[in-house]
Amino acid sequence: MRKPRLRAARRRRRPAAAEGKRTLGLAIPLWLPVGGLLLVAAVETGRIDGPHRDLFFNIDHFWILYALLPLLAAVIIYGPLRRSRVWRLGRPEFKLDHPRQRFRLMLRGGFGTQRVLNDPYSGVMHLCLMSSIVVLFLVTALLALDDYLPDEHVRILVGDRYLGYSLVGDLFGIVGLVGVAMAVAHRWVRPRTRLEMRWEDWAIVGGFGLLLVTGFLVEGLRIAASEIAEHESWSYWSPGGWVVAKMFSTASTGYLLDFHKVLWWFHMVLALGWLGLLGFTKLNHLVSAPVNAFLKSTESPGKLPLIANIEEAEHFGAANLSHFTMKQLFELDVCVHCGRCTAECPADIAGQPLSPMHIILNLKDHATDVGERMAANRAQGRPLDAGLEDAPAMVGDVIKDESLWACRTCGACVEECPVFIEHIPTIVDMRRNLVMEEARMPESVQSTLEMLERQGHPWRGTAYTRESWMDGLDVPLWTGEQEYLFFVGCSGALVDRAQAATRSVVRLLRQAGLSFGVLGAGELCNGDPARRLGNEYLFQILAKQLIGALDGAGVTKIVTHCPHCFNTFKNEYPDLGGRYEVIHHSVLLERLLDEGKLVPKTGEAQTVTFHDSCYLGRHNDIYDAPRRILERIPNVTLVEMPRNREHGLCCGAGGGNMWMEEQGRERVNEVRVREAVETGADKACTACPFCIQMFDSGIPTVQMDVDPAQRLEVFDVSEFLDVATPDDATPESG
Amino acid sequence: MDAVVCVKQILDPEMPASAFKVDETTMTVVPPPGVQPVISPFDAQALEAALQLRDAAGAGAISVLSLGPDSARDAIKHGLAMGADEGYHLNDPAFEGGDAWTTALALSKAIEKIGRPDVLLFGRQAADWDLGQTGSIVAELLDLPSVTVLRSVQWNDGRITASRVVSDGFETVDVSTPCVLTISNEFGDPRYPQLRQIMQAAKKQVTIWGPADLGLDPGAVGAAGARTKMEAFFVPEHEAQCEFVEGDSPEEMAQNLAQKLRQAKII
Q1: Cβ distance A695 to A649 under 8 Å?
Q2: Closest CA–CA distance from residue B259 to any residue of chain A (Å)
Q3: pLDDT number for residue A152
Q4: Residues A139, A45: Cα–Cα separation, whole Å
Q5: Which residues are CB-neighbours of A32 under 8 A, at least 6 positions away?
Q6: Which residues of A touch B38 (CB under 8 A)?
Q7: B36 at interface of A, judged by CB pairs closer than 8 A
Q8: Is the peptide bond before B178 cis (omega within 30 degrees of 0)?
Q9: Mean pLDDT, to the nearest integer, of A607-629?
Q10: What is the model's pLDDT at position A32?
Q11: Does A519 lie at the interface with B, CB-CB under 8 angstroms?
Q12: Average of pLDDT values for A506-520?
């Protein structure tokens, strides 16, 4: 018998891998320059007649520079201060729970640029630019400090210290030039399609490049005019400047001095101007990104914010900027339009009308246009919308309805964003406005919501009742005595294909001797689809009704069949007072395997690829349990699709899209099925009834030319385990 | 333009057929567990028609009227949430077990009590029994012109232009008001209520009337006044047979299929 292999589980144990990246992220940009400078400062052999340079060589009136500094500070402070009027339009809701966790993310994810490194090319590019900026800033600061030191006996930048200092500065200047070259290649030579280019990109990258070039020129001219003749060995420690000096070796000293003077002032004014970009361009992300990391929710991205006291709410969802929270408005200005969110967005991958980056950017532009005017209205005591009758509507004009509906709430954008923007609540807030305020939605959404209102499930046209799947299977009904309630869910009970997996779970739980029961006809949708579709009111009605029923029946532990039910029970019900110990069937089954209560015996040789459900994986960090179940089934070889685990691609059904018509180039499920087929696997495995249905409907389209018997098949992980764990004692007639 | 829309609450037609059970001795439907009764879909479309007519006319009051048990209040509330102004509920044990005639009688009295509107709207038929009589009987009782099974209505300064669905096409009718209109499913989807309207509707009072309020003798309504009598009530047995049409080539299969259909006198 061949031993089962499982590449995935071994390949990436998340904490270790992430830890490695964090260390790398922190080590290079921060510690290297600081360490380098400390090393230089630690060398104690400096003598004033050793290597040194005149601080303001050849420059008169350098006090002008210091005089300009307050102006720079004013620009840097004024930009955000003015913009904060727009942020303050929002609701003042800041969550600051788990401060240590937030602080850690700010250090590692924010200053440590952990996520930037996920993309190798732009990760290296960013590292070059960032380390160069940090080091050159410190280098300049040290120079200024040296200038302040009163006595030449205590000066720092003399002797070997000066030589080391010069070398570090020059090296990071070159590193910066490499970064600029990479950025230019990235943007203008071989532009990545997702990257949004604006004038600030030219200003930041071009400005920094020019700053570095003029820096080397100024240094080289100084060396050529003063140093190289007497102390050429000193200038080897300034390799960039030395090369420039050599180029100007034939020029007259007068020419060198004049040219130096002009360039020096140009370089300095450019430097101040470039730093001024901090005040009003995306360059501010070097402060705002860590701040945004600190403000990021510590809860699951699958949890949507509660509208408390909805009966008394003045508005439902977000119709204009003032309906967002301050944090939601702030993070619009944090976006660096790198396009990583859009590159990973299932809707965009399938050519559908949604780009998370453009949701953020279009809102940002709207904040600049309309938001500033709203802020002015507020400052002058006028109604917020005074004079804005002709302004474009935020929902409908600025953000198109179809973009909001195309969102799967899969969290790929949130996972990728290097500056920790949370797109999902912003998108769902606008959906809430569409549904509850405007009652404007696709027909399929309306029909789904009506089904939920009327029948407590979203499946229009189902031929089944909540007990149909039990026919022929001895299923224990909940008596209040059992340990676990098995919450079957609407799909598990009412959708033909999903019923098979429900029955497999029941057979396995019975076989393992677990004490459990089901609610049967008493079950009710827990509200997940209503909430994702923007009908928070309906969600709360359903949730409160179900919580009443569960509490009344004495339920404390729930096993769910569906990851969407799991997410809602686990992450969203506590806000409404429903507190249960919730476990997904894949995790429970793995535990029963560990305890020896289930023992897989047989299995045909098969290659299986595992598809992560977003609401199990990204939203709840369950990646390994279903894979480890497969690992234990004899003769299963697990292969991974290129997009897996945190970076997995949604099946297309999330965020209520299970019940919507897709518009765009192709369907998301077809993209995903193609990826599964390309692994060469015989079967696909998942742990979600939506994913199964999406695969099932995508396979015939993708494998149109393949004999149906040879096509990819998709099963729930419980079905794999059920087949491998036969138990003749289980009563089963149908 | 004032309108009264008569609505009926019925068993949800979207529920699975397997959940539909009847008690043959009491001749009633056994309420299926977990399935909420709903407003008859044609009646929701009649409400939509009333709202559109009022929008076209510029002003007017829309009243929702329903005869039924306590739960029928939800159908009235649904109409209020969609945008109607007043709700009237004919709810009394005496009304139970009636037929189209007794229902129409009670409705017509209620309509006179509300005040004759410009337009009186019904769904083309209740989606449970599918009789399609009540609207026409009310028109007769109130001596109003009636145009039935409409796919569109237009307000023309006190007159209505309506398009009827007939077996071989559409028929356009111009009718004076007051009149009775019955709306068909071709009219299009009714609107989804805004949450604010749902909340306002929840707070609105619904007027409840019994036979005495309408000046009717309890013996004239409900089972006592019914002119039809149910003899038996059962779910018919459906038998489905599946037969595969054989053939060596697609052409032959098609020929065999055509023969079978001709034998069955379908073509």
Answers
A1: no
A2: 31
A3: 65
A4: 20
A5: A131
A6: 454
A7: yes
A8: yes
A9: 97
A10: 52
A11: no
A12: 96
ipTM of the complex: 0.81
Q: Which amino acid is at A719?
A: E
Q: End-to-end distance of chain A based on CA atoms, in angstroms?
A: 32
Mean pLDDT of the A330-351 span: 95
Say which residue the tokens 């809602």 belong to. A568
- Tell me the mean pLDDT in the region A565-587: 97
Q: Is the pLDDT of residue A28 over 90?
A: no
Question: Is the CB of residue B203 less than 8 Å away from at least one CB of chain A?
Answer: no
Chain B interface includes A309 (CB < 8 A): no
Write the residue in A456, A460, A468 that is nearest to B34 by C-beta.
Answer: A456
> How much is the CA Rg of chain A, to the nearest whole Å?
31
**Chains A and B: how many Cβ contacts under 8 Å?**
59
Cα–Cα distance measured from residue A117 to residue A387, given in angstroms and rounded to the nearest whole number? 46
CA-nearest of A132, A160, A172 to A51 is A160
* Closest-CA residue to B5 (of B87, B93, B92): B87
- Number of residues in chain A: 734
Is B195 close to A436, i.e. CB distance below 8 A? yes
pTM: 0.87
Q: Which of A468, A521, A522 sits opposite B18 (nearest CB)?
A: A468
Instruction: Produce one character per residue of A565-587: b if its CB has 16 or more CB atoms within 10 Å, e if not.
Output: bbbbbbbbbeebebebebbbbbb
Chain-centre distance of CA A278, in angstroms?
24
- Cα–Cα separations (whole angstroms), residue B158 to A173, A518, A554, B85: 83, 59, 61, 21
Instruction: List CB contacts of A116: < 8 A, sequence separation 6 or more.
Output: A25, A122, A123, A126, A127, A418
Contact at CB, B34 and A522, closer than 8 angstroms: yes
Average pLDDT of chain A is 89
Chain A residues in contact with B34 by the CB 8 A cut-off are 455-456, 466, 521-522, 524
